[in-house]
Fold this protein.
Amino acid sequence: MKLKFKNKKGVTLPELLVTVLLFSIIVSAMYTMLIMGTETYQTTKIKTELVQNLRTSMDRMKADLRKAGSSSIIDVPADGSWYTSIEFRIPEGVDGSGYTDWPTETVDYSLTSTDLMRKLQDGVTVNENRTIATFIQTLQVRRLAATPHIVEVSLTAQRDTPKGNTLSSTNSFKVVLRN
């Protein structure tokens, strides 16, 4: 006995090929979007880390510099030139005669490779040497002759993304020193 199908429904080879082609196009588009989204996320994460790193280090520098007086800046003369480090003293208080007590200990901000370092030292003895920020490419500090009580600071951070692109961020600030 021979069975005959009244409705011979099935998928032909051309229909199957078109379906596989459309599915491949959709999957490859989704994969491309996933890769682009991952790269964007990584780039944004690195950029955010750079900005946060700069902000944290600048806040620390501002806090220290606000305590310093214009006469306590040791190695950045008020000549308008840019310098790559700054060393200064922070007053300990006021003596009974109303004069500021200046300690022998100094605060020094400088770059070591790509690390922004904060060093407390008493003469040649280093009391503290701490990394404040990483991936810092430049530290620039200056005082102008017309405004020696104002210190300008510029920091540039730079880092490579996993794809090899270089991201950089520069922030600047000015601090009015105590008299």
Remarks:
- The mean pLDDT is 90.
- The chain has one domain: 36-176.
- DSSP finds one helix and nine strands in the chain.
- The beta strands are 86-88, 93-94, 100-101, 105-112, 115-122, 125-133, 136-142, 150-160, 166-176.
